[in-house]
Amino acid sequence: MAETTSSEDLVAEIEALGGELAKAKASIATTIVGQEEVVDLALTALLSGGHALLMGLPGLGKTLLVDTLSKVMGLSTNRVQFTPDLMPADILGSEVLETGDDGTRAFRYIEGPIFAQLLMADEINRASPRTQSALLQAMQERSVSVAGVDHPLPAPFHVLATQNPLEQEGTYPLPEAQLDRFLIQINVDYPDRATERDILLATTGTAQAAAHAVFTPDALIAAQQIVRRMPVGDAVVDAILDLVRACRPDEPEASDLVRQTVSWGPGPRAAQALMLTVRAKALIEGRLVPSLDDVAAMADPVLSHRMALSFAARAEGRVLSDVIASVVDGVSTRAVAA
Fold it and tell me: Is 73 within 8 Å of 42 (Cβ atoms)?
């Protein structure tokens, strides 16, 4: 009887959270015109308790999206504009030597901008690899170490980073270890003509709508716990495992296409990310459990930055998203047949 009551309570919590998410999306829509898929993926990252990497050319609204999300989710936020001369201490903070009124001298730690619930790392690939790596411990452990002392970060803690394409001058590729810390990669493309028209009309007048807070930090943490409590069917779990393992060129499950084109594939963290994000996606869409379609939809955002094409495949003009789509088709076919 207790299990039935618990299940009923979870259903009620999921339905209530779905209503709050609908309000949050409506508030975001007052500022962000179109880009529904990008907004849903950003919310998916926050509900899953992870970080997101927004990929796109300058001027596509990536910075505005992050700023709007911080307002709607009620999170304290700091922004760091990454530049080639940015140093790790500019992000993490540093110790300074101070002299007291009595003449004694002691070091005092001054927190850097990373001490926020939502850190916006703008144009992260403009900074040197040394500075990019300064985020690694913070993104994984939610704390930073300065002068041998650990300093916990606020909860919840999320990094939403924007990145320009590597073809742009003055950019550095992110280290593989840091890329793996991003739960998902969100590709921000040009809007279609109708959406761009709506953007013109909404943003060039005398008055512009402003988003308002819907969540609080505690409410977001509670929502993240609900996501982790959502049930996942065995078929979805098996599809996640099949998909991740089929993307590794050395695994028996890998197709000939993967063996010929992929240099290295996703690790176990990718499967963990899929387990969380398919739940969050189902929740955002008002469903109680994730489906196989959710696994297919989240494959590219979760896997694309955790894999790399071989040099020969790049020379042939292969595209990683096409390889992932091929693997998804194969896994989906086997799942349906089973």
Answer: no
Closest CA to 48 of 303, 220, 263, 258: 220
pLDDT at position 207 is 67
Q: How far apart are CA 269 and CA 274, in angstroms?
A: 9
Identity (one letter) of the amino acid at 23? K
What per-residue confidence (pLDDT) applies to 5?
A: 45
pTM (two decimals): 0.88
The arithmetic mean of pLDDT across residues 121-136, rounded, is 82
* Residue 44 CB burial class (10 angstroms; 0-12, 13-18, ≥19): buried
* Cα separation, 141 vs 157, whole angstroms: 10
- For residue 14, give the nearest of 215, 283, 291, 290 by alpha carbon: 283
The average confidence (pLDDT) of the chain is: 86
Q: Contact at 8 Å (CB) between 185 and 273?
A: no
* Tokens 């596509």 found at: 60
Cβ within 8 Å of residue 11, ≥6 positions away = 288
* Beta-bridge mates of residue 53: 161, 185
The H or E element containing residue 121 is strand 118-122
pLDDT for res 188: 85
**Which residue spans within the chain are E strands per DSSP?**
51-55, 77-81, 93-99, 105-111, 118-122, 143-146, 149-152, 158-163, 182-187, 262-264, 308-309
Residue indicated by tokens 């694309």: 304
Distance CA 124, CA 179 (A): 11
Which residues are within 8 A (CB) of 253 and not within 5 positions of it... i.e. 6 or more apart?
Answer: 242, 245, 246
- Please give the Cα distance from 124 to 175 (Å, whole number): 12
Q: How far apart are CA 29 and CA 172, in angstroms?
A: 33
